[in-house]
Amino acid sequence: MPKKERDIFDLMDEWIREIEEEFERMEREFMRSFREIRESGSGEIRQFGPYVYGFRVTVGPDGVPKIEEFGNVRRIKGKPMISEEREPLVDVIEKEKEIKVVAEVPGVNKDNIKVRVVNGNKLIISAKSEDRQYYKEIDLPAEVDEKSAKATYKNGVLEVTLQKKGGISEQGTEIKVE
């Protein structure tokens, strides 16, 4: 009897089932972890929150699905850990002569956003407000000219445009957010 070939819909159903099972397992682990109250270094009792976790699934040009997580819940050695810093959802768009990075950092003032290019191939985004913090290091797909960088912030969306190639700085170049 010949083996039935699986189509893309069967594969997608299987991935969705696996993701649902993983979320159920993570939810059980989170609930067990969140019941515990941790003591901070100042001696005050502190319960963590809010908890932000999300993911997106994209399929690259090679056909391999890629899962990106964002938020302030991370898995370290298989256990969920809560961080005060949220990891924003980021898109990196590479064009012929430029790289555009789009990051979701809602709820902060543009004056509290720091964007740096380091070594010509890494972008670091950090932002703070009274009730939230964001931090993300992004490996760029090509070397960029740090001096050409431009950043804008509108409606919670940070957009950084960098021209490809150029000078490299070990200390990094800070980019003014407009």
Order of helices and strands: HEEEEEEEEEEEEE
Strand content: over 45%
Total separate domains:
2
Largest sheet, strands/sense/barrel: 7 strands, mixed
Report the total helices: 1
In the predicted model, the low-confidence regions spanning at least 5 consecutive residues are 37-47
The N- and C-terminal alpha carbons lie at a distance of 65 Å
Which structural class best describes the helix and strand composition? alpha+beta
Report the principal-axis shape: flat
So, CATH architecture of the largest domain?
Sandwich
Q: What's the count of strands?
A: 13
The CATH topology of the largest domain is given as Immunoglobulin-like
User: Radius of gyration over alpha carbons?
Assistant: 20 Å
Percent of residues in helices:
10-25%
What CATH first level of the largest domain would be assigned? Mainly Beta
Strand numbers in spatial order across the main sheet: 3-4-5-10-9-8-13
Characterize the structure shown:
This protein is of the alpha+beta class and about 180 residues long. It folds into two domains: about 10-35 and about 50-85, no CATH class; about 90-175, Immunoglobulin-like, CATH 2.60.40.790. Helices cover about 15% and strands about 50% of the residues. The chain is built from one helix and 13 strands; from the N terminus they run αβββββββββββββ. The model is unreliable at about 35-45 (pLDDT under 50). InterPro entries: A-crystallin/Hsp20_dom, CS_dom, HSP20-like_chaperone, HSP21-like. Pfam families: HSP20 (PF00011). It comes from Saccharolobus caldissimus.
